[in-house]
Design brief:
With 251 residues, this protein is of the alpha+beta class. It is 47% helix and 19% strand. The protein starts with a strand and ends with a strand.
Length: 251
């Protein structure tokens, strides 16, 4: 099964992009080769670019506080385990506090590192990090794996509060929906969304053996999915076949 996710608003779109980058950073930094660590550093700079939005930090903190209020409203409910509830609320409070104590935007402290910024400025140029352009960076790439990993971990540390908050918020959002089995008749699916229910994320699972690629569009009123098939020249064409899939709407 392949999982596709589609955000219904710009805020969740930004969260998903950041989650994608943080997951990539964790994967690359755990590897041993200098090339992997080069792309780990590139990923740190991408996170800084995405996180440079002035209102991102406040948006995340507002969402953390909102979720805390929602979970606090469950107290006293006999169907809710108090221990599990306390754990979630503690996690939300910890993420809020860590973000609140972070000065400025995500990765702002890294901009004071002249060496890092010189590497960042050259990474936007094709082939701009060759040894004759950045001999100090080339020397760093030839250091031991453990030394590079220590440096990457140190440079990633200012981004950790944002990463932890994003992961927690998306986990809560994903767990808010339940999967429903659906059929795309003739390769197309459309569903009206109930008014007053602010859905934020669509999750779709489809069997990979079907070789179908979904084109998803939607807003607060309607969801539309068109299944496509790739031909031998890698062009996409609409499929006319009925196909089963799982749909989860998360609010």
């Amino acid at each position: 099964m392949i999982l596709y996710e589609y955000p219904f608003n710009e805020r969740i779109r930004t969260y998903l992009r950041l989650e994608h980058l943080f997951n990539r950073l964790a994967e690359l930094s755990s590897r041993d080769s200098a090339l992997d660590h080069h792309y780990a550093l590139t990923t740190i700079f991408e996170v800084m670019d995405v996180g440079s939005r002035a209102d991102l930090k406040s948006d995340v903190m507002k969402d953390l506080e909102k979720q805390k209020q929602v979970f606090n409203s469950y107290r006293g409910n006999p169907a809710i385990a108090e221990g599990a509830l306390d754990e979630v609320i503690h996690g939300l409070e910890h993420c809020f506090s860590a973000l609140n104590n972070l000065a400025g935007k995500a990765g702002q402290s890294l901009t004071e590192n002249d060496w890092l910024m010189s590497v960042r400025s050259r990474m936007g140029i094709p082939g701009g990090t060759c040894e004759f352009d950045l001999p100090a960076y080339y020397a760093w790439q030839n250091m031991t794996c453990s030394r590079r990993q220590i440096d990457i971990s140190r440079w990633s540390e200012p981004l950790a509060p944002l990463a932890n908050a994003i992961h927690l918020l998306l986990k809560i959002l994903r767990e808010s929906g339940s999967a429903q089995k659906m059929i795309a008749t003739g390769g197309q699916f459309q569903q009206n969304l109930p008014q007053g229910k602010p859905y934020q994320l669509l999750r779709m699972r489809i069997d990979s053996s079907l070789d179908l690629i979904p084109e998803i569009s939607g807003n607060r009123l309607i969801v539309m999915i068109r299944l496509m098939r790739q031909d031998s020249e890698e062009r996409l064409h609409p499929s006319a076949e009925d196909a089963a899939f799982e749909l989860t709407l998360c609010s």
